[in-house]
Amino acid sequence: MSLWRVVGGGCVASEPGLKNDQTFIQTGIKPHARQVCFAIMRTTFVADGHGQQTAVSKTALSERKKVMTQDEMKKAAGWAALDYVTPGTIVGVGTGSTVNHFIDALGSVKDKIKGAVSSSEASTVRLKELGIPVFDLNDISELNVYVDGADEIDGSMAMIKGGGAALTREKIVAAVADRFICIVDGTKTVEVMGSFPLPVEVIPMAREYVARELIKLGGKPVYREGVITDNGNHILDVQGLQITEPKALEARINAIVGVVTNGLFAERGADVLLIGTPNGVVRKGA
Fold first, then answer.
1. Is the pTM of this model over 0.90?
2. Is residue 49 part of a domain?
3. Both 171 and 95 in a single domain?
4. pLDDT at residue 57 above 90?
């Protein structure tokens, strides 16, 4: 077993039986583990990945676990979504950190699909970098599946989306698709949505008017400064909501003049939910 320790601000491994000054850098250390070692900044020991460890602060180990499992859960959900991709079809692709894992997975089967429809410029760039053809939604007549993440999702499969400011294009592609596959890590499932501020895309000249109308609905809108959507619009993030009737609230906000759309995906919720957990992927829905 190799034991990690911090020496002079760097991570090295000490092999049992070697003298104290006989240390070596183990090239197999993962980047997230290396970051944790740097954060400790004192001589200490951490397990090498074989299930054994020496004394180390609980804070350091907890942080390492957090860094490792969050992204692993996202990756597990993203790769599991490949099960819903039909060979020879065009795939709808969403936006966000979890979807980035799905795009990477899609790259592994790019020769088996026709291509993709993207919900954002960012996803389009990533898809093209992997050699996956990207189609304009107006050039296709059907879309079997759309895969995207969520900022929150409740038990009815309604979601809050739009943390990446791509909510309008995401909602359009989701409306076209036969099936919506939502991929999340375990932190995104909630009983009542609203802890994550609800994004609302607005025409720039209507921003303050829309904000006043959202206050009447009990929300606290905050202008997301410096963010312009791919459609050239602004985002208001509505805080302080307890969303018990997501379909009704989605319709009410969308009826405000100047609103392009809001980040509630309730009228068109997810058909399948893939939840990445430390124990594997939990699947809900058909």
1. no
2. yes
3. yes
4. no
